[in-house]
Amino acid sequence: MIRAGLAILIVGVVAVTILALVGDAGHATITWLGWRADMTASAATLIAVFAALLATVGWRTLLWILEAPQRSERKRAEVRRRQANETLTRGFLAAAAGDGSEARRLAQKASDLADETPGLVRILAAQAAEAAGDVVATHAAYTAMLGFPEMRLAGHKGLMQLALAQGERETALRHAQEAFGETRSARWAWRTLLEARLAAAEWPAGLELVKNAQDRKIVPPVTAERARAALLAALAAQLELSPDPKARAQALESAVDAARLQPGFAPGVVMAARLLAAEGKVARAGAVIENAWKTAPHPALWLAYRDLKTAETPRERARRLTELAAQNPGHRESRILSVEAALIANDGLAARQRIAALDGEPVTARVAGLHARVAFASAQPDEARLWLAKGMSAPQEPDWTDLDPEGRAFAYQAADWARLVITFAETGELIHPRHERSEKSLNPLPELPIAYADSAPFITADGGEPMLYPTEEAGYGDDDGAGQDAEPAPARRRRRAGRLASGTRAAK
């Protein structure tokens, strides 16, 4: 109304101004009901303007009076809406704080106020009952949501969580399955189904779920790829134990696929290399490990790489391991491997020089054992004993604990694989179940006496030479392996028992 009045007034002012500027006031005559009025055009214009303004004001006033009931109703609705929003907010806060009684009171109040948002009222009622510990009311509230298409997903999730809390796993999985089938974006339902499949060691079903999630874009591609690699490795570990040749062939295929998808996933790479070597494909197994070493070195990798060939001299083996370390020279494992290669070649001077690169490393049992072996190889028995003493109280390295006392790498249980799949998929990091359980790993300390004896040689209890590091059957003496038959039988048995390979050796 104000805008219309201003427009009329502006038009009148403009008209009067134009008449005044031209210098001709004009003449206007109005005849109405026998009355006649003579006036100038300017006066007539002003009268018309004011009449129009008066009519507009009168009309708008009449409309304002007629619309008073509607305004009053809108006012009450707005106040009610504000009260409903405030009640819902307070109710959700009470439910989140665990104040069940207050949340239920506010939920009841909100049901009388929030006519426009019945969905929020139902959710608040369910959460309030849950906070109050009323299982029956909670179940009823979530069940009621299933009758509304827009609330079915929330209802299934609430019923799933309630079933899990009561230990009814089958019921929870049924709700998760229904929710996953109804929408393409229910990540919580997918995660629940995946964890159930992993807990049951159903690796093929887990692979299908991961593929489905990737197709639906529930998880990022990199997460799906890491999950697939870990699941394939778990499947290979399961099938490898089967006596069926077809199952072992499938295990090889799964392990190779895992190594291809994620070269940095050491369990899959070690398994692929071991199975390839068992099939006589030593060169391909070596290439798989070399590719993995460039990405993420792990002690199990170089130990498996070492055991790929058995009919070679110590110098040949040392040269091969040195070449592997050169694939990723800046990594800590490569620096350790270069020292190992020098020890295998029986080159104490080179080992002493190379171990200097580890001076800044924290003292772990593995590092202390390596220092002890280098000191012994350098004819420093007292220094070797000192490092042995340090190593006995030093902490273990998590990566090293992936090797059990028999030297098998990643000999995990099904539950360990299940956790590994989830963790590696989400973070790209390996877990170390054996380290978490404080289980014994392959002893990183050499079998040397730690008691001091002046000029006493290092000998074992049976009179043989000490085992400086667990190796395969080949000796570390002459390069051509001569004299191996002359080695004392107990020492040979210890070397065989200390072998680090996680599976059967492949022939050269």
Characteristic key phrases:
508 residues, 3 domains, mainly alpha, 65% helix
Low-confidence stretches: 450-508
Strand content: under 5%
Number of domains: 3
For the largest beta sheet, what order do the strands appear in spatially?
A: 1-2
Q: Total number of helical segments?
A: 23
- Rg over alpha carbons: 42 Å
Helix content: 55-70%
The strand count comes to 2
Instruction: Write the H/E string, N to C.
Output: HEEHHHHHHHHHHHHHHHHHHHHHH
Mean pLDDT figure: 83
Structural class: mainly alpha
Bulk shape: elongated
- For the termini, the CA-CA separation is 99 Å
Question: What does it look like?
Answer:
By secondary structure, the protein is mainly alpha-helical. A two-stranded antiparallel ribbon has the order 1-2. Helix 3 (68-97) packs parallel to helix 5, helix 4 (100-113) runs antiparallel to helix 5 (118-132) and helix 13 (266-278) packs parallel to helix 15 (299-306). It is elongated, with a radius of gyration of 42 Å. It contains 23 helices and two strands. Helices cover 65% and strands 2% of the residues. The protein folds into three domains: 2-66; 98-214, Serine Threonine Protein Phosphatase 5, Tetratricopeptide repeat (Alpha Horseshoe); 220-497. It starts with a helix and ends in an 11-residue tail after the last helix.
